[in-house]
Each structure stands twice: as C-alpha cells, then as structure tokens.
User: Fold Ubiquinol-cytochrome c reductase complex chaperone CBP3-like from Mizuhopecten yessoensis.
Amino acid sequence: MSTIRLLAKISRCACHNSITHGFKINSHKSRNLLSGQVVQRVVLHPPMVNGSSNIIKTEAQETNKENETFKEIPFSRKVKHAFGFDKDLRVPYKELEIAGYRAWLSIIEFTDYQEFCTALELPDTFNTWYLMVELHVWIIMTRLILEGVEGRYFRNVLVSMMWKDVESRMQEVEEVSFNDRKHFLDQIKHHLHNAMLYYDEGLLSDDRALANALWNILFERSDVSARSMETIVMYVRAQILFLDKIDSMLLLSKGCVPFRTLNGQEVNNKKEKLTMMLQQHIVPK
Assistant:
C-alpha cells in the first residue's frame, strides 16, 4: 500500500500539533510542474481578481513593475535585512518572519476542519486535513503576490511552517516509517506546485474552472454533490475578496488572517484567538 493511501486512512485525531516557536526560512522556488491531466481553461468573462499565487503569470503581472522585484533575492540582501541594514523593505525582516508564523496559526485556529468534512462530505483523515491546509495556504498566497518582495519573504515562512507542521504530525503516526514519511513529504511538495497551478487557473477563469480545480485537488476526483461544490466555490471567492480588503501593512506586520466559516460568518472567539496570536512570544531562529 502506498504511503499516501496509508495516510489517507489515518484519522486526523491521531496526529497532534507540535509546532515549535523557532523556525528558519527555507527557499521554496516556484516551479512549473504539472503531472496528470491539464485542466481546460474556459474564459467567459475577464478575471475576477487582480492576482494569483504567481505560479501562473498573467500578462498584467508580467507588465507590472512591482512584480519585477520577484526575482531570486540575493543572499547579501538577506544578510543586510537580517541585521536591519536593508532600508528598502516596508516591514523589517524579522517581523515578516513572525507574521508568516501567525498566518500559519490563523489557518490552524480559524479553520474548522470538522465543519468542512461534514458540510463537504469529506473523510476525516490526515490526507483531507493536508488538502484543506494546502487550499488555505494558496488563498493567502494570492494576497501576498501583491506585496512585492515582502510578500515573497512572508510566503516562504508560511510554506516552511506548513512543511514543519506536516512533518511533526506525521511523526506521531506509528504506522508510517521514516522512509515512507520522507517519500510522502517529497510527493506532497510536488503536489503543492500542481495544486497552485490548478487553483490559479480556476481563479483567473470562471466558477466552472474553479470548481473543476477544486474537484481535481480537494475532492480528488471523487463523487461530490452540487451543493458541496457550490459551497466551496463560494467560500474560496469570498475568502479571497475578504483578504483583498486587508490593509497591506497590517497583513505584513501582524500576519493574522481571521478566516470565516463556510457560511461566511465570523469564527467564535475571534477576538480571543487574535489576542492569543498577537501576545504569543515567537523567537525566529
């Protein structure tokens, strides 16, 4: 039995959240990787949003001068910024690290995965948990693409935290060996790039294309009701619109993203959760 199938049968409750407060940035380069069937793009009207996660480059993005900074950041500039010498950034580098960590906590704290499993008729497994996390990371990435080089720093921390948390949860599963765990991590890293391509294509097209992307990635081409598909498409559109309204400096400096429920309502204890995140002592490595 493959590692992915094995993990798909393991209940999410069997894994525990063991994120540490220290972390390092890993450089996750965007790659144009797409294995399997390519989603067919159907354009009936202009795109509903201004940006994507930047894995698919639109004509508007390529001509935008702000996105010209999205090249490989020189190591010398990272060193300057780490010591506070890089004056070009709107938010200090260490604050961007902490904001990226808080964004990951937002996904964990504000997303009710049990609600998603029940409403969308998804199995309550580790695999489903990862697919839901992957979707919300992409939603945040569509907002970060508008923030230039600061958004890139932020994104790298967010993705790095996702891998650390996924690996820490997998270590709690005794049925998965070290080699299988390593193989699975390699697979889902490629899966992330593929998912970004599908989601970007759907976001920049119409709702049918977005539904097709969600069916391929989130539902893994399984049977799904029209009501469930409509619910998740409306949720994704609403969350992206909600993030577009967040002030850039507030997002980059604080990193808190108060996701709403599937029905568009605010999460219970929203203020308490935000206060907890802002007061938590985080020491980047």
